[in-house]
Amino acid sequence: MIEILINIVLFFFMIVTAIAVLRMQRLFGVVMLSGVFSLLSALLFVTLDAVDVAFTEAAVGAGITTVLMLGTMALTAREEKLRSNFSPVPLIVVLVTGAVLIYGTLDMPHFGAADSPAQTQVANVYLTESPDDIGVPNVVTAILASYRGYDTLGETVVVFTACVGVLMLIGSFARRGVRLPRRRRRGPSS
Amino acid sequence: MSVDFIISHMNYWLFIVLMMTGFYIVVSRGNFIKKIIGLNIFQSAVFMFYISLGKVTGGTAPIFPLKLENIDPSVVYSNPLPHVLILTAIVVGVATTALGLALIVRIREEFGTIEEEDILEIESDMQAKDNRRHGDAMGGRA
Amino acid sequence: MRHHLILRVVVKLLVAPIALFALYVQFHGDYSPGGGFQAGVILAVAFILYGIVFGLAKVHQVFPPWLVQKMAALGVLLYAGTGVLSLLLGYTYLDYGAFTPGHPEHGQHWGILVVELGVGITVAAVMVAIYYAFAGRTPRINDEDW
């Protein structure tokens, strides 16, 4: 019961943060709030027993992402321009999507149920057999690197590919470029 | 709709509210940095949904004692599989976010703005100019 | 940030423990929360922090950009190479039991260690490379305007 209460309080904080992100015009504040949001979600992951995920989220979301966003902000703009007209279409789209999703949750298993399909299938095999198969106390590491090694290899390649993409767009590969865009390629900065 | 049902589904609904807030930021704001942050909120909501599927009431983090002979069969562990999927997804998420931010930097250099409305305006101007030029080359209206 | 004395002193004190903590997370990932992904990010944070406070030129001296790019590829190769090695030893791809025939759990330990190291190297190098790319452009906002 107390866990559910903590969850609801954390969710409430996060929703307030998200709404503040929506309303705020100064991008510096928005970026900082997104860091706060990441820290709060890391706390939520701890209460949901996902310590590895919480660790990653705290390091990545609150650390690296904030730095990258600030870097982008320094290269682009500090303020969001206020839009002239309020359109109801996005609000309607969002409300309809949300209603459909909530309808979808109605026949889902109860939160924390031990007999839901997610718990009874392959997860049990991992939990009971990994001490003999792999002999590593942290089951998450055992699955990550061994049972699902292909998956992790793919993810590593995706991270590498994203890095190549960033370097081609704005990094040292771009500077050596063969082709120049229409205007504004002067000075040492670009 | 008993109280029990509401409490046991509350998590899912709160995550949907969060996800829709992120979605609303993406579709209603014109600033690209804000759009990316909205996408991040959306993404975090999906992560939370996955992790909450793996939670078992009364369970603990899926890490065994150091001596594997001492594993107590009565201890309940949460499902480690969603943790693995989401752990890698977070790191991939930051890499793809960086790619998006790099695109924003390039857009700023090309167009001088990162507001969607301004960029659409500039593009339609360019299009009109192009049409006029081609029209002249063809000796009339294109 | 040349004029921020306290920041400079604190960062000098912090960088080494952060890097050490990254190594701990990397090699203790079998027993506690952690592993290649987290360790890579933390190691990258050590370099990024140093770069933010002392300037890009200084951190380029410590970890030159050409080395960063090579390291990013090296990590992926280490991971994929482990799979190829087990393939050459007559087992299936990424079956770590190949390394110590007769004691599959020992082989699993070695395999996980090497593979996580590959992940850690790639993630750290990628994060540092992305930071270099963003920081290498001339900012449009002055230090004082924040």
Key attributes of the depicted protein:
heterotrimer, A: 190 residues, mainly alpha, 2 domains, 9 helices, 72% helix, disordered C terminus, C: 146 residues, 5 helices, 0% strand
Account of the protein in words:
The complex is a heterotrimer of chains A (190), B (142) and C (146). Chain A folds into two domains: 1-80, no CATH class; 117-176, no CATH class. By secondary structure, chain A is mainly α. The longest helix of chain A is centred in the first third of the chain and has 25 residues, at 51-75. Chain A has nine helices and no strands. In chain B, helix 2 runs antiparallel to helix 3. The longest helix of chain B has 32 residues, at 80-111. The radius of gyration of chain B is 25 Å and the shape is elongated. With 146 residues, chain C is mainly α. Chain C has one domain. Helices cover 72% and strands 0% of the residues of chain C. Chain C contains five helices and no strands. In chain C, helix 4 packs antiparallel against helix 5 (104-135). The longest helix of chain C has 32 residues, at 104-135. The model of chain C has no long low-confidence stretch (mean pLDDT 88). Chains in contact: A-B, A-C, B-C.
